[in-house]
Amino acid sequence: MKAADVQAIIARSPYLSWLGLQVIELGNDEITVKATWREEWVANPTVGQTQGGILAALVDFAADFALIERMGRPVPTIDMRIDYHRLAKRGDLTAKGRVIKLGKQFSVCEAQVYDEAGALIASGRGAYLTTAPDS
Amino acid sequence: MKAADVQAIIARSPYLSWLGLQVIELGNDEITVKATWREEWVANPTVGQTQGGILAALVDFAADFALIERMGRPVPTIDMRIDYHRLAKRGDLTAKGRVIKLGKQFSVCEAQVYDEAGALIASGRGAYLTTAPDS
Amino acid sequence: MKAADVQAIIARSPYLSWLGLQVIELGNDEITVKATWREEWVANPTVGQTQGGILAALVDFAADFALIERMGRPVPTIDMRIDYHRLAKRGDLTAKGRVIKLGKQFSVCEAQVYDEAGALIASGRGAYLTTAPDS
Amino acid sequence: MKAADVQAIIARSPYLSWLGLQVIELGNDEITVKATWREEWVANPTVGQTQGGILAALVDFAADFALIERMGRPVPTIDMRIDYHRLAKRGDLTAKGRVIKLGKQFSVCEAQVYDEAGALIASGRGAYLTTAPDS
What we know:
4 copies of one chain form a homotetramer.
Chain A: H1 3-12, H2 14-18, E1 22-27, E2 30-35, H3 52-65, H4 68-71, E3 77-84, E4 93-101, E5 106-114, E6 120-129
Antiparallel strand pairs in A: 1-2, 2-4, 3-6, 4-5, 5-6
């Protein structure tokens, strides 16, 4: 699967389209995507910070899609942990995912989310079900 | 803080409003909220399942707001773990949060997300920063 | 599998024997075990607290063995989260595990660890691989 | 704090001594330690694998002590996640920890555990309480 195929999956998905995801780079069990900021992301309008659920969605997407070249499809998330490092102010976000351990039954991936200035906003890791679809 | 105060926080928040959150019950270090389904939640239109990031946002909201009577304000999430149990098909979701351990510096809370049939869709827990705001 | 069978698994295991585990109760996808304190558990002799790795081992054991009636064997841990709530002073510990969601490919369980006074010391949850052994 | 100071903390700690920890390298918010295998680590004598609680203790130690130069003391673990990648057969283990994000109130660190052949056995991350001791 290539970057254009991932972009097509995003285009078909209401939620991934709503996140405004653009694939920047894909290869070597890694992916980089940009998410386009929108006003609905804001948790508290006084602070203007992006809500943690958006960051969690980005960590999960990037971690899962780091597996997509190998798996040829998005795989189910078993579970995920996310750590919040800094407030994400209004602005686009970049998420980078990579595979930590590819396994026959489940795999572990991690991802980082950066703001426009390159500051680390959040990071995390998840376990993904990578058994063959018919098993 | 009462249910109406939490509803006012939701009304002011672009993201919480977008989730269509309604406070059902608040008290005894617990909260129950309903989230109103919207088409943009869908991950894959063929399957129709709600994206994991929405479920993560609901777990985080319910876990955090289980502390709101005590804290009088939403508190920063340190980190969160979410486990995915079943696909969430189109439809409203209910999230229930409760405090596991209230601490002076950080507190631990958990939450469950249920579909309209009452099936457990996802659950998780997080650590929340509960130091006094000026510390 | 019955409590006596679990006790036999413990007896054969060097590590579980070292933890001094005794099965108190087993049934309904739940287990309660007691761990017998030993001096080697102490992290810092001035404070006298039990090291977090011991608590993690107890959470993992109790969560995994909550599945043992159903699975008939200990199953591989995919991952685990542990939250530390209070310092565990010198003394025996009790761990209680229960199944949150039994699945065909993986299952999620949680566990709590209590001290001799019944105070909650640590708690956590993990994902366990519950596919059939030959899959 | 230098490697010799960390080795002295280990020497005073019953549990860290029991793990047979030797500091290999310390610096730049990173630490590498070796743990000396012992028979009591074995979960199941037929398989011979090291129990997950030992691996959890190593991840927690290495993640926590990646902060020790900065903090001058071991700090309380708020919570930890561990992912299990491969069975650890009989033999010494090496754990490497590094700081992901240093914060004023809490910090996030990660660690990996490798076997004697250099294979990645387990990895994880935790949140650590890094407020000043008197706050």
